[in-house]
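Data card: per-record layout.
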Amino acid sequence: MDRTADDDGAGIANVLALPVGGLSLVVGTVSLFVAWRSRPRTDDLAVLVPVARDLLRAVVKGEAATLARLLGDTGRARPADVGFVAPEAAEVWWRDDGGSASGSLDDVAVYYRSLELGRLVVLGEPGAGKTVLALRLLLDLAAEARATLNHTPTARVRVPVRLSLSSFTLPEQPCTPSVLYERLEAWIAEQLGVTYGVPPAVARVLVADGWVLPVLDGLDEIDPDHTPPRRARRVLDALNQPTGDAPAGPLVLTCRSRRYRELTHPAPDPTGWRPTPAVVQDATVVVIQPLDTDQVTAWLAHRFPDPRGPHGVHRRWRRVVTTIRNHRRGRLATCLSSPLRLYLACAVYTEPDTTPAELCDLDPETLDRHLLDHLVPALTRHHPRADGTHYHPDDVTRWLATFTHHLTTLAHHGHSATDLHLHQLWATTGTPPGRRIRRQTTTTLALLNGLLLAGFGLSHADIIGHYLPTTRFDWFVVLGVEVGIFIVTALIHRAGVQNTPRRLNLDRLRESSGRRLFIQRLAFGLTFGLTVGLTGGVAPGLAFGLAFGLKIGLAVGLAVGLTIGFTDGLTSIQNTAVRPSQPLRQYIASELANGLMTGLAFGLAFGLAFGPTAGLAVGLLFGLIGGPVDAAGGFVLLRYLFAVRALRRAGQLSTHPARFLDWAYTAGLVRLAGTATQFRHHDLQTYFNRYMP
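The structure for this 693-residue chain is written out next.
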């Protein structure tokens, strides 16, 4: 064919491609319109009030369960009525927010409503019950907000949300308090999405417009122990920032008394320079008081009742009650005045054949250690595994010590010292931490990707004319591709330990917003594929170009559209979890489903383009190999498996750590904060830290 004929063919191809290109443009325009229409109107009460109502419901359900587990009570969770008082005048040197001089847990919501700005700081010694008091305040305020919405459906309410400050990552570079406050607001909005599934745009509006009352738990946990509270000081400076023309917003903050005193009355450094004091401005500070004898007795009567006996307490506990009432300042009364120690005593002596009276004979030095040493044996006895067997106490202690070692190592690298995520275990495994797991995962994924590419090439060997490398150049190309895959995999694998867990959420197809998002992503993929296919296909000429362009365009577009539509439309960020193993299981299931969907999409696409044989081959390759590869898509599956294998061989962890954490959660040793697992109390984490490998 001469040049003129080629030019004519190319011209005809371009002319015929115009309608298809126009169609792709229309599809793209429609997809953009659908995306614009799907944006929530965040300034509309009709949008915000239902979200606030759902958020209140989720908060109450989750935090009520948390309170019950902290109390170790499967029945009606009723904490001891701890009291709180205003600190001494020397401890506070800033304006307060009103409130009386004292109060108690039962009327803490009434006390909080008496504050003018709603800024409350709760201090206390370790184990004094700061988190329990914050939970009781949160539940009471949430109940009032729900009652308000039931009476006035369009009312504007403030939703109390508890957040663990140890999860907030401060920027390493210095920044102004106003910038840090913006980051703090963004973090609160992000936690609303991660923990309660609030859409990001709506979450940002709820936080910015004052729909959320942040209950910030654990200011003392931001900085590692035995270090100056530099991060906590920066957080306090940010919390004092005014919100527009209004003063600093309402909040509830908990902190250990000693740590807060280090902030308000900082000691000079070795050079003699004294840091500027930091304090929550215009806030009322209260200090939780130890339980008195009557409160301890009432709590024991609630947990171990005997209405016919003295003080309403079961006979096993009568000597304990008599001892603390006769010696109100004695060693046993002092120990049980701590809500945490009272819980430990109840947990250790729950079984009817135990003898709590032996506590009366212990000296002060061994009493506290006795409760901690006997906690795990008591819980392993009282809480069997799912198959009816029981863990050995020594194994439980050793495995929990491994988790404390993991958290301690993460804290040294700027991560949370309390939030445990199973998919991050690899980062602190081995010597140096994480390097061996990183190397094993990189090598395995490079081989899997190479196998995938080789299988794809063999299934389409007719394109290149032969099946195996026959020349030196061919082998050089193969080796270069494999090295390239390894390098790319290694570079991707250099990502940090933080991953945003996602879960498969097929229920989104039942929602109009989920269906719109799926259709929008599918339309985008088709537009992309048609554009790429026609742009590259019409250049060679009419006969080959148009057919090739349409075929490849539809194939690529369908594959990309289905893959992106599934990934974005049918998966979502994990929010709450009902047990510690759930985030990891959902994470892996989501990535496996994404890989299998990719195989199905590309198999269908290549089946349309090159026939059913090619489609079946590609589908099997991408589905069976691409599924596991994508599951390690964030390298989650392989990192986790290699880490568990290494820790199990060293005797430091169970063969099934996720199953073990589920048991520990049921037994009350750990708790859930969103998708993170935490020790139920910092003192327990410190105790198991003594047994670190």
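Known properties of this structure: Confidence is low (pLDDT under 50) at residues 1-42, 462-467, 538-542, 627-634. The first helix runs from residue 3 to 37.

See the next section for split statistics.
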